[in-house]
Give the backbone structure.
Amino acid sequence: MSIIKLHDKYFKSYISEIQIQEAVESVVQKVYADCKDETPIFIGILNGCFMFVADFVREYNGPCEVSFVKLASYQGTNSTGKIKQLVGVNENLEGRTVVILEDIIDTGNTLEEIYKIFEDKKLKQLKIATLFFKPDVFKKELPIDYIGISIPDKFIVGYGLDYDGIGRNYASIYQLTTKPTMKNIVLFGPPGAGKGTQAELLRDKYELIHISTGEVFRFNIKNETELGLLAKSYMDDGNLVPDEVTIKMLKAEVERNADAKGFIFDGFPRTESQAAALDAFLEEKGESINGMVALEVPEDLLVGRLLERGKTSGRSDDQDESKIRNRFNEYNTKTAVLKDYYQAQNKYFGANGVGTIPEITERLCSIFDKI
Ligand code: AMP
């Protein structure tokens, strides 16, 4: 996923759900190897641990008990150093093996408090398991028995961890980043919807760089570059150029305009893997897609429009109805799903693409202004 905003701050993806799951499994395996002959009590340290505990115990296949204590030490993004015990342990823990489940250990202040809480409980043994650990800021001489992932000192949210109360519900981990400065828009729509015409008008109004992958390919074909020769056979038949080629070219176009205020992507992404590559690429720069703005036009209107355009555009793929039909087929089978991709991120904005050019521009501007 892309950049998220929580309160006044921005966060970018950092640790994926899969990486988290692998880390949870590795901690479970180590704990199980040590505790399989008894019934340990897993004690989660609320609030941040709830997702870790839920995943941990589902993965743990031996007999066990589960309980929680609630401590508080964070305010905003800084550890205050003072820890309050809000809910303590009520169980009789004498002679038992207790495994503490922590979402993250950084300075070690909370950990110190945990050791104090269990000091006089006459446990058989106290073990500490943490999903995340920040070795660079850990200041205590206290043992930690099981560590999922060691990370640098970055403020993170998600998977139970919050920034001032929010962000706990994300399934993966995000890290603090700078405020994005670009406006990046995917202009979307079937072939002939008017993306190119509108993109040029919007580019001037919003001072954005317009990248049309189709145009870049046509430019390369005209100049008989290696890329052009590669793309030509696909384009001539109305097929999509392979993702690997297109993504590489797109990245180069963005890099060429490193100082841009933002981009209008026209004709890209056209497949889910292009969309994911674009998200990841922008995220590395601390930027993201603001929205997909889609021109919605019925298909039967478009074939006529394209044939009409073919009379003057000189585009061979506009002149033959079977090639046009194939472009729609490519669109419907590979590209149209991107609506769902962006909708899932609350970034899909549809606009009626039937009308005069100025009418449509106005509709698009009202969307551009708000995203
Ligand atoms: P367009 O000018 O956007 O209609 O694109 C014309 C042709 O260029 C398409 O039919 C494809 O063959 C190729 N093309 C443009 N953009 C892409 C893309 N993002 N992925 C794959 N092929 C593309």
Summary: The mean pLDDT is 93.
